[in-house]
Amino acid sequence: MKKIFTLITIIMLGACTNLTKTERDQLHLLKSNGITVDRPVGNYEKPAAPAAAGLLNLLPGFGNFYLASGNGADSSHWIYGTGNLLLWPLSILWGVPEAVVDANNINERELLYYYQYDQQGKQELRNTGIKLYH
Question: Fewest CB within 10 angstroms: 32, 46, 109, 118, which?
Answer without folding.
Answer: 32
